[in-house]
Design brief:
Number of helices of chain A: 8
Structural class of chain B: alpha+beta
Shape of chain A: globular
Strand order of the largest sheet of chain A: 6-7-8-3-9-10
Shape of chain B: elongated
Strand content of chain A: 25-35%
Largest sheet of chain A: 6 strands, mixed
Radius of gyration of chain B: 30 Å
Helix content of chain B: 40-55%
Strand content of chain B: 15-25%
Structural class of chain A: alpha/beta
Oligomer: heterodimer
Distance between the termini of chain B: 28 Å
Distance between the termini of chain A: 19 Å
Number of strands of chain A: 10
Order of helices and strands of chain A: EEEHEEHEHHHEHEHEEH
């Protein structure tokens, strides 16, 4: 049952994007003339070997890095025309991040970590914030760990906190860079299931990079990359996905 | 902002060793600053009390009377009229003491010395007893005519004791020599420079010696409630005396006995008033406080530089350790200025806590030493004008000191914090280490 709304205007649009890094006198191309369009509510996996450009592509979509050439349009905004401050605002209100190493603030509790983006937004009052954070922690199964520090949690639990933090602002897009890489396969599977569930409930677009074929199997679209290029952009049916997952 | 403060506080708690080391250093500098400030305030206060009791008021209405152009006497005539002008101009003046002024030679059977003679009405000046500690004799006897109070060192030089008679030879207001026999009724403990050349005798006896009438005196010592108002009161008095038709000398920050030479060179006769503050009269001693303050500031500046380097290094390390965290926070939508604020708040919090603890330690130490009544070595007594070390808690100064140290350490933290704030999120997130 695909939930992507392919008829709507794309939430992410990448047009002729290249990214080059300069290492001393050497110019290293990380992305070469990429074109990509992502519809709202999609659950996309970016696959490819190390150095293929997955993380670079996610960084460009996440507005934490800028393209050397080409156009990156996020939620209708051309990122080339935005200042650093506007890019930060775009990240705060439109994008959620899930990192491979969880990247939680170690001195804040689970509750405070999840609440943090809401405090940056300054939109909700204290009671509403608490309600929203506790709802999400309940959904990720960590309501009883709200007062714990990240160091007191397992890897899987930390990643669930990171998911809650990414979703708490109700962003249009959630980017996850190898979210299961530091987890055992069963926990990784659970995390992907959770992300999928959130994708279906909240209608949030998920774009995640992975090496893991089992994880890839959950995506309704797989973008395969190699040497900085998209070599395959495959939309997949629910049936084929289910077969792969069972396999 | 509350969350940033929380992060700062918890980071300080998490890195307890670093916090204790750096906080301890800041607290140490603050404690030293507070301690030295208390010492400086104490010396200043002691000096003020000693000086304003022994030889000057907070403000002095004095002057010179010249019979001929080259012959001046430290005398003001018709002082009661001057007193009226003072009371009219400064209604809140606390106390006015007429004091005789003179300079002469004390001669005993065994020796002689030059001394400034202060004419005093001992019954009217209870504060005099607080400063002058009588080693032998009785201060009340100074109310009797032809008596004198001298200090221990002077008694030793003149080889006299209580009851002995010494001769004071001086010039009258008209420039002729005159002498008087004075009975030593009190020998006081030395109080530094002041006791080297000051002696005290009844004002009436001094008037007779210098041949001035009852309406004349050496100076009016004015004591005011708020010494911070001295500059304002000086201006008001100057204007009032000029308006009342008096000739007032230009202000010169020197003791009266340092002005004879220049006054005698001036081509005028009659009366001129000279308004001075206690600091001007004691200007030759002000270097003591200035030297202590100077030393204190040099020491504090050196220590502050060391602390600043420590804070900066510590923050560089903290930023290096937390680069990925900075990257994450920037990625999830924290603006640069908030990252800057996060690290500055951390340095500020550490500084505030450390300076507060340091100020308490410094003040407690000063209080303990004050209670211990540490005697001032004889050499130091010359400049400090006191028998025991006094520490005064100057709250205003302490808060200023705390603010300066907190301000400096917070300011220095801005440099690494700006670096943290300017990190590109992608660079910070990819940081390894």
């Amino acid at each position: 049952m695909p939930n992507a709304d392919t008829s709507a205007s794309p939430i992410v649009s990448i047009v002729n994007v290249s990214k080059e890094y300069t290492l001393g006198e050497t110019v290293v191309p990380a992305l070469r003339d990429i074109n990509l369009s992502v519809a709202p509510s999609e659950f996309i996996s970016i696959a490819g070997p190390s150095g293929s450009g997955k993380t670079t592509l996610l960084n460009l979509i996440g507005c934490v890095d800028t393209a050397t050439t080409g156009q990156v349009i996020i939620a209708g905004q051309d990122t080339r025309n935005l200042s650093e401050r506007q890019l930060t605002e775009l990240r705060l209100h439109t994008i959620g991040f899930i990192f491979q190493s969880f990247n939680l603030v170690p001195v804040l509790s689970v509750f405070e970590n999840v609440e943090f983006p809401l405090l940056l937004q300054r939109k909700l009052g204290s009671a509403e914030r608490k309600q929203r954070v506790m709802d999400l922690l309940t959904k990720v199964g960590l309501a009883d760990r709200a007062k714990h520090r990240p160091s007191e949690l397992s890897g899987g639990q930390r990643q669930r906190v990171a998911i809650a933090r990414a979703l708490v602002t109700r962003p249009k897009i959630v980017l996850a860079d190898e979210p299961t890489a530091n987890l055992d396969s069963k926990t990784g599977e659970n995390i992907i299931d959770l992300m999928k569930e959130m994708n279906q409930i909240e209608k949030t677009t998920f774009i995640f990079s992975t090496h893991d074929a089992k994880v890839m199997a959950h995506a309704n679209s797989i973008i395969r990359m190699a040497d900085g290029k998209i070599v395959e952009d495959a939309k997949r049916s629910t049936k084929s996905r289910d077969q792969e997952i069972r396999a | 902002m509350l969350q940033l403060f929380l992060i700062a506080l918890r980071n300080l708690a998490q890195h307890s060793k670093r916090t204790l080391l750096l906080g301890g250093a800041i607290a140490g500098v603050t404690a030293l600053l507070v301690f030295l400030q208390c010492l400086s305030s104490g010396i200043h206060e002691t000096m003020l009390e000693s000086a304003t009791t022994l030889s000057t008021g907070h403000i002095n209405v004095a002057g010179f009377y010249k019979v001929t152009a080259g012959q001046s006497a430290p005398v003001v005539t018709q002082y009661r009229k001057l007193e009226e002008v003072v009371r009219r101009t400064l209604p809140d003046v606390e106390f006015i003491a007429p004091r005789g002024r003179g300079w002469g030679k004390l001669i005993s059977d065994k020796g002689s010395l030059q001394a400034a003679t202060g004419g005093i009405d001992i019954a009217q000046e209870p504060g005099f007893r607080r400063v002058v500690r009588v080693a032998q004799g009785n201060l009340d006897d100074l109310a009797q005519p032809n008596t004198i109070l001298i200090f221990k060192e002077q008694a030793k030089k003149l080889e006299v004791n209580i009851g002995d008679v010494i001769v004071l030879s001086t010039q009258t207001a008209r420039g002729t020599n005159n002498t008087i026999d004075l009975r030593v009724v009190a020998i006081a403990e030395d109080v530094g420079f002041m006791s080297m050349w000051n002696v005290y005798m009844p004002i009436e006896s001094l008037r007779r010696l210098t041949q001035i009438n009852d309406e004349s005196t050496g100076a009016l010592h004015l004591y005011i409630k708020d010494i911070n108002q001295i500059p304002r009161d000086m201006d008001l008095l100057r204007e009032a005396f000029i308006a009342a038709g008096y000739k007032v000398m230009d202000r010169e920050a020197k003791a009266f006995w340092m002005k004879f030479e220049s006054v005698n060179r001036e081509d005028w006769t009659g009366q001129k008033l000279d308004l001075t503050t206690w600091e001007e009269e004691m200007s030759f001693l002000k270097w003591t406080v200035a030297a202590i303050d100077g030393l204190m500031y040099i020491l504090i500046v050196v220590l502050l530089i060391i602390i600043a380097i420590g804070i900066m290094n510590s923050l560089w390390i903290a930023i290096r350790e937390r680069t990925r965290e900075i990257g994450t926070l920037r990625a999830i939508g924290m603006q640069r200025r908030r990252v800057l604020a996060m690290f500055v708040i951390e340095a500020f919090t550490l500084s505030v806590l450390a300076t507060f603890v340091g100020a308490l330690i410094g003040a407690a130490l000063a209080g303990l030493l004050n209670a211990a009544q540490i005697p001032v070595p004889t050499g130091a007594r010359m400049f400090l004008l006191a028998h025991t070390l006094k520490f005064t808690l100057d709250l205003h100064g302490i808060f200023n000191g705390m603010a300066v140290i907190t301000g400096c350490t917070t300011l220095i933290a801005i440099i690494p914090s700006i670096h943290a704030a300017r990190l590109k999120p992608v660079t910070a997130m990819q940081h390894i280490g």
